[in-house]
Every structure is written in structure tokens, then in C-alpha cells.
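User: Okay, second chain of the day. Same drill as before: sequence in, C-alpha cells out.
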Amino acid sequence: MVLKIIPAIYDQLPSNPVEMLLISFGSQSDIADFCSVSQQAVHNWKSRGAIPKWYVKDLCSYTGIPEWMLCPKHFNKGESDVLDGNVNEGTGQDR
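Assistant: Same drill. C-alpha cells below.
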């Protein structure tokens, strides 16, 4: 399932990026399985309110959530446009 977000509702979404992912995935365990990490790792991301940038591209492709929403520290608003199908490669290393 791909969640497509309409830009007009960005302000109504949770500010924590992991909570945004929970809308698509349903559970921290499902996010962990997708990223091949432990559920505890996802719990830690949620506690910190940050997702490591090397997981962001795959998560954005799967959910349709723009990179800047999942990882605002490393991606600027408008830097990628998942809704139009153009996913920015980002500026960081892959993993």
C-alpha cells in the first residue's frame, strides 16, 4: 500500500516522522521488518523523533511521504517531489 499525501494536509500530520510512518505501516514491527532493523531501533527513532537518513529513500518510495518530512535535518522542503514520481537522490551516502 502506498500512502499518497496531499500537500494541503501536511500541517495536519504528526510532527514525529515515525508516527507518520505508522499511518502507512501500522506498527513499529512492520517498519522494522521493512528496514531490516530491530523493533527497538524503530522505538529509539520514535523517541528521538528522527529516522537515520540512509533509510529515508526506501521509506519515501514505499509510503509516498516526501524526504523532507521524514528527515528534515538532511532534506529541505521541496528538495524531492515523491508525489510527482521524482525522488531526489539526496546528498548523503546510501548506507
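The chain has one domain: 16-84.

User: Thanks, on to the next one.
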